[in-house]
UniProtKB/TrEMBL annotation, chains B, D:
Segments traversing the membrane: 7-29, 49-73, 85-103, 123-146, 175-196, 230-251
Keyword NAD: no
Record-level GO cellular component terms: plasma membrane
Record has Disulfide bond as a keyword: no
PANTHER family per record: MOLYBDENUM TRANSPORT SYSTEM PERMEASE PROTEIN MODB (PTHR30183)
Membrane topology: Multi-pass membrane protein
Family according to the record: Belongs to the binding-protein-dependent transport system permease family. CysTW subfamily.
Domain ABC transmembrane type-1: 47-250
InterPro entries assigned: MetI-like (IPR000515), MetI-like_sf (IPR035906), ModB_ABC (IPR011867), NifC_ABC_porter (IPR006469)
The organism of origin for this protein: Janibacter indicus
Subcellular location: Cell membrane
Chief location bin: membrane
Protein name (record): Molybdenum transport system permease
Automatic annotation (TrEMBL), chains C, E:
Residues in ABC transporter domain copies: 1-230
Keywords: ATP-binding, Molybdenum, Nucleotide-binding, Transport
Domain Mop: 285-349
Annotated SMART domains: AAA (SM00382)
Listed GO MF terms: ATP binding; ATP hydrolysis activity
Superkingdom: Bacteria
Official protein name in the record: ABC transporter ATP-binding protein
Example GO BP: molybdate ion transport
Protein's UniProt keywords contain Lipid biosynthesis: no
Pfam families reported in the protein's UniProt record: ABC_tran, TOBE
Record flagged with keyword Transport: yes
């Protein structure tokens, strides 16, 4: 990728421009694919990702990390860095779903079943986005859960269910999709009404400002949206 | 024999590496928010749980790890280096993977867990699981520190004790262990600290239920999602506490010891 | 009670077969001869190539050190640095199951015996070398051994403490008449003063082990080392019957040594005391039948007497009075005449049968 | 003096606590997926970065921590116990908070970072930051282990060296350090292992950029979002690697040493 | 070159002020008298309450140990366990800046001198006690000291090695005539044989420090310890002029001691050799003017003679022949008559001015 236009002055050597994107870890697969497309379209451009929890990324941005684009998994973390970003846009949504072990041995058919005290149910803790969503959902549906554990990461809910440690759990649809055959999803009434939104924004002090805007446009544009939907994300 | 004075130069470097960031951290603590945070039920639960489990884990490490350290240092049996390498594994295993290992072993579907559940013993989601996770990650610290200390011991002291009629047990408790006191102490401190700070394995294996399995590091991690400053303040509590405990242990033990 | 020891350990140069009755037995020999190694084998701390230890009829083979009732005080005191002096001494009694109080009382008793009562509350780190040795001795005595092995226990002691400790060792053995004491030492005075019982023996380790009653071993040395220990001159020779023997001197020439009457024939050792050797400026006339020209190698003052090392015709030493020194000008390299009265020269067979 | 045989009983317990979960883990590894995973560019980058940074951090720990450990063990200066307590802090500080501490100090807006950036030196989000984070968390392991070993040393050996004409430097390098060899070794191994496994502080302070700051534990963390089995397989690589390195170091050093 | 030492250290019972010229000097005293402590102070390893050390005109106060050119061989050999025997000995030369080769050559030289060449490639852990002591001595000698401090270097050596080492110490000092050797020892033989130069001194540490030429200190002992060391009997008394002195015996009663002629008045020490003491079953008639009833406290065989401890009227000892023993039945507690010829009793003033 050498020898093309030197772009917008972002510090590349030998004519390569690097775009620094901080993205929520749950976006890893989708964004890797998007980067391949984006680099193909922009010769001499290399996308370098920081994947981590959205709150870690927010901390890094506050700490002065050299970032051009921030894609968060929730609006709360985008709000934390509101002073450093320009004009966040929602580019994807996500909803919750019940997951069980493959084959659904406990014959769980809906949220009401999860209230059974004999079942080991795991959810996210209220402090993280998927936990907040779970609380809203159960309240709306009038169900009271007694979870065996309130995980701080969605991945840990997935692990517990796929390893058989828990009978059921509440995760995002995209996580369930990603896990493939390790878990089985159960239709969850009312889930569509509790939507989690993914905002994306360029940084005010982005080194490659134009390229950053191009990237945001690509993600919110048809190509990006297609990739995201393949991975199970909803449209904004 | 005083150590050479210029050692202070690199030592000051070491102190700076540790102390300057702590100062930096202190400047960013919001003291006002400390009190309500500390007295919240969730924090207190987490604090107490952490202390209880870390103490139990450290005791377990001492109980199981001390014999192993002595055998590693003294014995000349085959497979010794293989075993030492194995004991080191939890050191380098990412804690989350350590948690997964425990899960595949003691979990409901695990190698042993299946039989345990059949026998009516459930470990998952209990405080026992926390202790198990902490012991798993902390054990190598005790074993390695202590092994180094035992290697440095003059075996003729134990021989003297033997001809004076001391049984192996008496030799161990009255001669070997007191003589490796400093090594055992620092090993225990390292193990306690590691247990107290344990996060990844606990989260993966024991989960995070308030008062039962949500230790202080887990609480801090959660708190951080909502309010980073509160999380830092809470961490400082953990730090002060650990430092006080460790400091007290050291002060008591080094007074009587050799100069 | 008696101690039988058979031990072979090539790497440590050990090959012995001893029977030591209750009493005090000395163990001597050059540095590295295996004294400490032998004591370790008896105590069960080191594995010889082959060994058989029987103590009071009970075989100790395979018995772990702490069940042997064999206490070893090693060459380095090895006090426990983390225990006070009293607790160091009480360690043995405690190990034997005595209560804390009884053990401390025993410790205080033994500390008094070795003259260290005033130090009971100190830490070993704060003791002088001799003080540590005395505490180590008390600790060994307090452990109620059936066999007590002492590796140079008196080497660090001062002139006042040494006779006291010799007396202690003597007293202990007389009090407990079934106790076997083995004392590794370099000092012939220890041998003579501690091992003064009828059954007490001296063993000298070396190429050929010399073993027997103390006097017998010292009076008939079979090695230069033992002769040195006994303080006599020793020359290898061949004896015809009657008196006299033929020796080879340093140049290889034959020299006839006139001796007292004896009935030895063949290889033998010829011994004479240093004070039987006279030195003269000129060739002496008169009664001594052994008169040789000699060369001075060394002159040493020695407890009010002067000891003169000679290199010819044999390596020997003479002990003379300081007055004699002013008569014969003796400096290293000087030529002198040496005379030894035949009546003071003794002859021993070189290859003894059993010596005990 | 052989250690008593019944020590094997509790020692076996210790071995079980560590080994059984590792077996459990092995049963769940998908060997087929290992090869493509290992040879992926991302994995190799992470592996190399991890090795490089952990080695550098360990060297830094030895360089800075050894003098401090000696001074802590030998000196009788005021504030000694305060300093020891401070050095322990990174042990119990949740790693993420440690990362925050480093960020508030060396970050672009940090206490020192501001001046450093003005001087043209940027630390945060570079490989240097990774090394700094690893050194921060690993230093206490070296210091504490080594201090225990130095305390156990007979000071008369150094005195003998001094009267023979050895300068403080010669005494240190030819007498003190060789004599505390086992302690220094186990301290370094602990520090290396801790550096190699470091995750939280690195993520916060150094970020996660492939080839620059994304070390193996960070890569494993990411991999787990996508494919947990792959993450476990990758962890095993880390473990095998660390075990081999550590095993090699031990084998070499204990051969010549005392029995 | 000479060594001046002033040191006061209450906790270790030290209070000395010595000037030691080049040559060999002995340091004696009871266990715990402070010999090792004094050597440590000179070497700069331990801080006395107050001390001033001057070596060859150069003040050593504040000079760190490694720059003093003062080498100390301590009571425990303290060989470096991680270095081989040769490298142990080469440690000093290497520290002084010699190259690896030169240092090893020096090490080999000194190992040969102490008779340990065959052990050059061993580890210290595989040495016997005496072998370790010899290597430690070689290591000290190889470090080219200006002052060489030896803490009981000969205590662990065998009868063959001891005279050899004494000769080595003698040779070294004669070769390097500016070297100051200080030798802490418990053996009067070491004192007499090593410190045989005109300027050589003996210092006995104790309540009152005794210091001076070897013979002077041993001939006029001012403490029971020194008397024991010299092997003479010592009684505190008051002298009128002429002959005779009044002593207090153990019961507090005054006893007149007849002595040889002297010109001492006031507090004095009365000395007589053990072999000047005769023992009798019945009160002897005749020439001896000192005749006292006594009680036997201890009987020891002693290099062919018998030494008898007596407790009254003074603590003293008598040396008699074994033959005499059969005439007078001597067992502890027995009553005997003691006689000492007045001509063999000497009187020294108790408070000497300068003794040298
Ligand atoms: N490290 C120490 N700390 C405190 N006191 C000590 C220490 N070493 C020695 N002492 C004390 O100081 C005094 C002098 O001891 P030092 O070792 O100098 O005697 P010494 O003359 O060498 O005796 P020895 O002939 O037994 O070796 C003794 O009473 C001893 O108990
Ligand atoms: N731990 C050891 N390992 C190997 N060889 C040893 C060891 N200890 C002693 N030796 C060797 O074994 C031989 C006998 O040593 P030992 O200590 O028994 O002699 P010793 O008679 O006690 O001598 P000394 O009078 O010097 O104390 C010596 O040649 C010595 O070098
Ligand atoms: O990637 Mo997230 O922000 O932890 O769900
Ligand atoms: Mg020995
Ligand atoms: Mg001493």
């Amino acid at each position: 990728a050498c020898g093309s236009d030197s772009g917008d002055g972002s510090g590349g050597e030998g004519g390569t421009t690097t775009l620094h994107v901080a993205a929520a870890a749950s976006l890893t697969e989708a964004f890797e694919e998007i980067a391949t497309d984006f680099e193909a379209e922009h010769e001499g451009v290399e996308v370098e990702y920081q994947f981590a929890g959205s709150s870690d990324l927010a901390t890094q941005i506050e700490g002065g990390a050299q970032i051009d684009v921030f894609a968060s998994a929730d609006e709360a973390n985008m709000d934390k860095v509101a002073d450093s970003v320009e004009d966040p846009q929602i580019f994807a949504t996500n909803v919750l779903t019940i997951i069980t072990e493959p084959g659904n041995p406990k014959k769980i058919s809906g949220l009401d079943d999860l209230a059974d005290p004999d079942l080991a149910v795991v959810v996210c803790a209220e402090q993280v986005p998927c936990g907040a969503a779970a609380t809203t959902l159960t309240e709306q549906q009038g169900v009271t859960l007694d979870p065996a554990s309130e995980e701080s990461k969605v991945t840990d809910v997935l692990t517990k269910v796929s390893s058989g440690e828990a009978d059921a759990g509440l995760v995002y649809v995209t996580d369930a999709t990603g896990a493939g055959e390790d878990v089985e999803t159960v239709e969850t009434e009312g889930a569509d009404e509790v939507v989690n939104s993914y905002p994306i924004a360029t940084l005010t002090d982005a080194a490659a400002a134009d390229l950053a805007e191009d990237f945001v446009a690509h993600v919110t544009g048809p190509e990006g949206q297609k990739v995201l939907q393949d991975k199970g994300f909803g449209t904004p | 024999m005083r150590p050479p004075a210029w050692l202070w130069l690199p030592a000051a470097g070491a102190v700076l590496v540790v102390v300057v960031p702590l100062l930096g951290l202190l400047t960013s603590v919001d003291v006002g928010s400390l009190w309500p945070l500390l007295t919240s039920e969730a924090s207190l639960d987490a604090l107490l749980l952490s202390l209880r489990t870390a103490v139990v884990s450290t005791l377990l490490c001492i109980l199981l790890g001390t014999p192993l350290a002595i055998l590693l240092a003294r014995g000349r049996w085959p497979g010794r280096s293989v075993l030492r390498a194995l004991v080191l594994v939890p050191l380098v295993l990412p804690p989350v993977v350590g948690g997964l290992a425990l899960l595949t072993t003691f979990g409901r579907r695990g190698l042993l867990g299946e039989h345990l559940v059949a026998a009516g013993v459930t470990i998952s989601y209990t405080t026992t699981a926390v202790v198990l996770a902490q012991t798993f990650v902390a054990l190598p610290f005790l074993v390695l520190s202590l092994e180094g200390a035992v290697r440095g011991l003059d075996p003729r002291q134990e021989q003297a004790a033997a001809t004076l009629g001391a049984s192996p047990w008496r030799r161990l408790t009255r001669v070997t262990l007191p003589l490796v006191g400093p090594g055992l102490l620092s090993g225990s401190v390292l193990a306690f600290a590691r247990a107290l700070g344990e996060f990844g394995a606990t989260l993966t294996f024991a989960g995070s239920a308030q008062g039962r399995t949500r230790t202080l590091p887990l609480e801090i991690y959660l708190q951080r999602e909502v309010d980073q400053d509160a999380a830092i303040a809470l961490s400082l509590v953990l730090v002060v506490l650990a430092t006080l405990i460790v400091g007290a242990v050291y002060a008591r033990t080094t007074k009587g010891g050799p100069a | 009670m008696s101690l039988q020891v058979t031990a072979r350990w090539a790497q440590r140069g050990l090959d012995v077969d001893l029977t030591l009755p209750a009493g005090r037995h000395a163990l001597a020999g050059p540095n590295g001869a295996g004294k400490s190694s032998l004591l370790s084998v008896i105590a069960g701390l080191a594995p010889a190539d082959r060994s058989r230890i029987v103590l009071g009829g009970r075989s100790l083979d395979g018995v772990p050190p702490h069940r042997r009732r064999v206490v070893l005080m090693s060459q380095a005191a090895q006090l426990f640095p983390h225990l006070g002096v009293r607790d160091n001494v009480a360690f043995g009694p405690r190990s034997l199951g005595h209560g804390r109080r009884a053990a401390r009382a025993l410790a205080d008793h033994w500390l008094e015996v070795v003259g260290m009562s005033a130090f009971a509350d100190r830490r070993p780190g704060g003791l002088s070398g001799g003080q540590a040795a005395r505490v180590a001795l008390a600790r060994a005595l307090a452990a109620e051994p059936a066999a007590l092995l002492l590796d140079e226990p008196l080497a660090a002691l001062d002139v006042e403490a040494t006779p006291q400790m010799r007396a202690v060792l003597s007293d202990v053995t007389h009090e407990r008449d079934d106790l076997v004491v083995v004392l590794a030492t370099h000092d012939v005075l220890d041998v003579l003063t501690v091992c003064d019982g009828a059954d007490d023996t001296l063993t000298v380790l070396g190429e050929q082990v010399e073993h027997g009653p103390v006097r017998a071993v010292l009076d008939r040395p079979r090695s230069g080392f033992t002769a040195d220990l006994a303080g006599v001159n020793l020359v290898r020779a061949r004896a015809g019957s009657g008196s006299g023997a033929q020796a080879r001197d340093d140049t290889g020439a034959r020299t006839v040594v006139a001796t007292g009457p004896h009935d030895v024939t063949g290889d033998c050792w010829v011994t004479f005391a240093p004070d039987a050797v006279s030195l003269h400026r000129d060739r002496p006339e008169g009664s001594p039948r052994n008169v040789w020209p000699g060369r001075v190698s060394r002159v040493e003052a020695h407890a009010g007497r002067v000891r003169v090392g000679l290199e010819s015709p044999f390596v020997m030493s003479a002990e003379i009075t300081p007055a004699a020194l002013t008569e014969v000008p003796l400096r290293p390299g000087a030529s002198v005449w040496v005379s030894v009265k035949a009546t003071q020269v003794r002859v021993h067979p070189a290859h003894a049968g059993a010596l005990s």
